[in-house]
Amino acid sequence: MPLVTRRQLLHGGLGTAALGLLSACATPGTHSVNTAPTIASTTGEKITIEYWSWLKDLQVVADIWNAANPNVQVKTVWIPSGNQGGYPKLYSALAAGGGPDLAQVEFGVIPSFMMVNGLVDISRYGAAEFAGRYDKNLWNQVSFAGGVYGIPQDSGPMATYYQSELFAKVGATAPATWDEWADVAAELRKAKTYIDCFPLSDAAVFTAFAAQAGASWFRADEDGWVINMSDEATLEVARFFDKAIDKDLVQTGFTPFSPGWFAAAGKGEIATLTSASWADALIAGISGGAGKWQVADMPRWSSGGYGSSYQGGSTVGVMANSKHPREALEFAAWLTSTQEGIDAEIEHCGIGWSPAPEIIGTPRTQPSDFFSGQNYNQDIFAPAALEQNTQWSWWPSQQQSFNILSDGFRQKASGTTLVDAVVAAEEKIMTVFKNSGLSIRKESA
């Protein structure tokens, strides 16, 4: 992801509605953004940092830190994930002048929290000293306007999980390209099996495929945001899945990890899932699936693009009303970039892919019995994490954009194509930006 400058973000990239971002004149969260006193633990004063997250059993991990840092104690509070309720709760707390010191915030939602002055620029508290520990692409995704607005916590590099016995029945191996994927899908349909499902209700999946193909939907220019959702890379993906759906090569009746999906996968009616590294724990819940599944590289697009893509990923953000931003930063860095912290997160929380390239986590260095004895984390996902679209940028109102795109995809059964839905969504998203006071224009041909 290209770095966005302060001028782009304030004077153009986020428009006049966000001019208060760094000047403490927007609400919520105006009382302490970048101005809260750093109460150092060296004073001898015992402090408590509160962290809101949707990770279960995170307090067990925090207690490892607590045992070694008696003057800086961390209390965790569970909240529902993202738009399931966690973000509204955070916004409400910020508006009331409260909230936690730290919160789990997805990469794609950082610009939206910045719009309401909700995150501290932790570059003011020494974030640069930790930058070298993290994947450069992920660090760029938390870097805006000359500042740093989160510490990468996890990501979701993608690969293909597949049932090798089902492939063997049709004489196929894991497809190296999407064209091969379509060929294998046609053979599997003859055996009354779908190669995969395409979730019309979850635009995040299509977005990940488009990013892999080389799309870059948004960028910040001197005069505002520039949008290009109808670029050739995106339309290639839309045309491909239009054709796959029309030929009945993919299941659209349910989504991954739904009850219908688990039943179909267990009965051999779904042969693969192209998804993120964190999907392994969910796939392991398929009844009778042990030893039947393997992991292969994500298929590549024939026009080029990248070897993988991201699906999901979150950060630890220092929230606007924190009175202990330096100590909060130190805990966040320990949690996400040390062997001790990462191992504990994997063991107790099932965290996604480590943002620290040198530390994938001890539990992920061993072969897996469920996945046919593969050491797939080291052999597949570690390289996939480095095969990402570095030109991809997240934007304000990301979730609303996804909802617009999903609403269009749902019309596929009524004759609307995915291509049509993408083009229409682009226009609607531009309207959302303009109604929010943001400057946006279509990329010139």
From TrEMBL:
InterPro entries reported for this sequence: Bact_solute-bd_prot1, SBP, TAT_signal
What the entry lists under Gene3D superfamilies is as follows:
Periplasmic binding protein-like II
Does the UniProt entry include the keyword Membrane? yes
| PROSITE patterns per record | PROKAR_LIPOPROTEIN, TAT
UniProt signal peptide = none
Source organism, top-level taxon? Bacteria
Keywords noted in UniProt: Cell membrane, Lipoprotein, Membrane, Palmitate, Signal
Enumerate the PANTHER family for this protein.
Answer: ARABINOSE-BINDING PROTEIN-RELATED, POLYGALACTURONAN_RHAMNOGALACTURONAN-BINDING PROTEIN YTCQ
How is this protein named in the record? Answer: ABC transporter substrate-binding protein
